[in-house]
């Protein structure tokens, strides 16, 4: 009695199943075992590498600048006495959305809590406060700029 060779049809089916599973995994993974990355993964890696190198060198750059940063900030503060109004004006546009209502909207969209629950009410209160802040802070900053600019004279 000799050893029979395995049926070729059975092997082809197993190989096809393995290839199908591997292909499904490769489509899901951002980078595959064959090192073929998806375009978005490559773009993310490039941005992270470039920005990351810049961020890591910031402490060195600030140490090398020395008094330049302080001098520039002092010059801007003396040149524009309405600098606090500018901070309020632009801060209302940047601070309120990123701190108050965008995180709350994202949290509500991701977790989908029960309507009228405590977390739902808390998030909606923060959203409304953020919208009030984004409207009132620039108005107050603009008012401060106008009041400061009425009697404005350079370096007086």
Automatic annotation (TrEMBL):
One of its GO terms (molecular function) is symporter activity. Keywords: Amino-acid transport, Auxin signaling pathway, Membrane, Symport, Transmembrane, Transmembrane helix, Transport. The keyword Transport applies. One of its GO terms (biological process) is amino acid transport. The chain crosses the membrane at residues 39-58, 65-83, 89-111, 123-146. Belongs to the amino acid/polyamine transporter 2 family. Amino acid/auxin permease (AAAP) (TC 2.A.18.1) subfamily. This is Amino acid transporter, transmembrane domain containing protein. It comes from Trema orientale (Charcoal tree).
């Amino acid at each position: 009695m000799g050893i029979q060779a395995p049926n070729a049809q059975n092997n082809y089916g197993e190989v096809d199943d393995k290839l199908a599973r591997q292909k499904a995994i490769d489509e899901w993974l951002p980078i595959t075992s064959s090192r073929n990355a998806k375009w978005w993964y490559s773009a993310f890696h490039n941005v992270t590498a470039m920005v990351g190198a810049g961020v890591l060198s910031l402490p060195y750059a600030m140490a090398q600048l020395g008094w330049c940063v302080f001098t520039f900030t002092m010059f801007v503060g003396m040149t524009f006495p309405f600098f606090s109004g500018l901070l309020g004006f632009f801060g209302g546009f940047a601070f309120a959305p990123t701190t108050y209502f965008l995180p709350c909207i994202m949290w509500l969209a991701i977790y989908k809590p029960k309507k009228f629950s405590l977390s739902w009410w808390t998030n909606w209160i923060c959203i409304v406060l953020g919208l009030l802040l984004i409207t009132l802070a620039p108005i107050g900053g603009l008012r401060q700029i106008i009041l400061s600019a009425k009697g404005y004279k350079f370096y007086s």
